Amino acid sequence: MRKGKVQYLMMVCICLALVLGGCSNNAAPAAEKNDNKETSGNQESKPEENAGIKQIAEGRPVTLTVDLHGWMPTINTEPTAENPNVFLSTQKIADEFMKLHPNVKIAWARTKPVGKLQNEIAEWLTTQISAGTAPAITFTWGNNYLDRGWYEPLGDVLDTPNEYIDGNAKWSDEFPEYLMSHRTLTDNNKNMVAIPVVLYSGPATGYYYNKTAFEKLGIEPPKDWEQMFTDAKLLKENGYIPFTQWGNFKQIELGQWNEQFSVGPFYAAALMDKTDYNKDGQVDTLENLRGVKAGLFNPAEHAYAQEMFKQLKRMYTDLLSPGWQNTDYLPKWNEGKVAMREEGLWALQAENGNKQRSFDFGVVPAPPVTKATSEFVADVEYTEKGPFQPDPDLSLNILKPIVDKNPDMKEAAVAFLKYLSVPENISMMVLEQGAALGAVKGSEIPPLLNDWMSNSFPIMPKASWPNAFTEDMNISLNKQFELWVKGETDDKSFFAKANEIQLKSADDYIKKMDIDIAGW
């Protein structure tokens, strides 16, 4: 086995932890599965018949508004031409919860602009919170809006039993240990502010590729960043559109998937001997902040930082086709004209059933930057098969501004999150969706993932390259990046401006969050 591979046993252990680790019987019935398969627990039991289940809010009526983002139940229960997608498991779970707690009504936050970018979601949440109409339970990519003070701390409730699982002593025992300190789920004091429900089945995204095109040219789908550009050149020479971004990316911006999964983590990992200040094996927001203040990410001074930005620029200048911002590539993909397209793994089931596609397709992990491209990146390690410690896909927060003065609402929100995390309930969700993993021990793995899970996966470093730390400074940095990509400013000017913006954003974040930087 070549250097850099991680033994298959590692993957087996993770899968066993997820599949076998939660085999205890439920104290309360899980929602009935779509296939009507019998589940553990008495399906007709009432709250008072289950010793561990408590009445919520002493029976007072509570309307709990919930946002599950892309995991919301569809309104239509049958596919139609206008709405071909049907997803019902989360409605079944909510219905069973309401049977257990008849004084609680679950309402869905259907006005949320799901599918929009993070800044648009932030605008929606800000408006809803100001009006007092925000969902008590919501999805915000974990701790993405930490600087806004929106998150209810969840560490204390994770130390209490999950009364919906027989014999559970601590709710946190349901989850693989690495998730309880995951850098996207905790605040700056390492307190949990988001509950993981569903995990990506490896990286969040993959490259969907045209098997016919690759076989015709005798090439393999790319395993690293450099091979992607080599493949793309040959594909373009043979009349294919070599690569398309995710359809929602229509602007030249930082922070997109190429930075998140292919480029940023591997440059950041090479600095971890300096940026992992507490030596816990991961770099969190505070450590990135400290690294910025120390000048470690300054492209005006460091060649490695310059090169990181140049690789991101390279995608726009060397890989994307002219007119990409105004082109709908889906019809061209279906016709076999697109060789590779960047897409989320959540789209795997839909693509698998795509009757308009005229060729066989495959999916591979996003290719990482390796030493073949740069001396400045960390060595890339790979699993033998399957993902290693996958990141959260659906993680849910309780919004502090909504529950802070409403203890009944908070109690209902905690109870629903506990019920949602029952292994049988999460299994129902991921089996219906088909392309994700449950975040709790004992959840099942969808059969659709069998081929995908046989891939060798790059092990993602637990570090990311910081851009700006505040929304307004991110807008400024993206504007400078766009000017640079378009050739409207030179390297030196962009690197200086990027450092200036990053430092300003760090100072603003420190002030806003009242962070003690003594000793930095």
Automatic annotation (TrEMBL):
Coiled-coil features, chain-numbered ranges: none
Disordered: annotated segments: 30-53
Keyword Signal: yes
Pfam families xref list: SBP_bac_1
Protein's name according to its UniProt entry: ABC-type glycerol-3-phosphate transport system, substrate-binding protein
Signal sequence interval, chain numbering: 1-27
Superkingdom classification of source: Bacteria
